[in-house]
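Protein in question filed below.

…
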Amino acid sequence: MSLRISAFFPAHNEEGNIGKTVRTALEVLSDLAEAFEVIVVDDGSTDRTAEIVREIMEADPRVRLVQHDRNRGYGAALRSGFAAARYDWVFFSDSDLQFDLRDLARLIPYTDRADLIVGYRIRRQDPIHRRLFAWAWNRLVRWGFGVGVRDVDCAFKLLRREVVQRLPLRSDGAFISTELLCRARASGARIVEVGVPHYPRRWGRQSGASVRVILRAFEDLWRLRLELRRR
């Protein structure tokens, strides 16, 4: 099955990972897609992330760079990626190499019967406190919104562009993944889950489980629930 795919990767201070991420994406998409582009959304990095991407761009015009002038948050980076995408299908994953991009091949067979093909992490390789929070969060989202997805925040998703670009996504933070799936489900989009292996982060550090991020996610969750109930 030949697809036209825009693949993008949000990045904040990922100089140790971004080069391999982009080069692997180019290799994988060359085998899987009829046409493709690779976009890096640099969310206000203060290291060499953008410089490394520009070096790759000089050798390959299929690579693009979208930059934020400051760190605006994970949700803002995803929204910029969705807005920049030009092809029929949009794939995104994080830049930290916790997924093998070759596993995109596991998602593609479902494009003939789904609008969102979302991964779930097989044997999640994160600290125990992150796994416990994720377990509770996923059950809360299932109960509150009826989204029957086992791993809401898994950053390995293939989406039909026309579907995702009409969703009124607003979150600038980590809540964006939940908002995406809740709004997609409410719009009648077809969602399929596919298991993908997960690997430990080898360079850099994670920030998604900070107290500030968690509290903001709960605030956003409550606001979205009120909005959808009013509708």
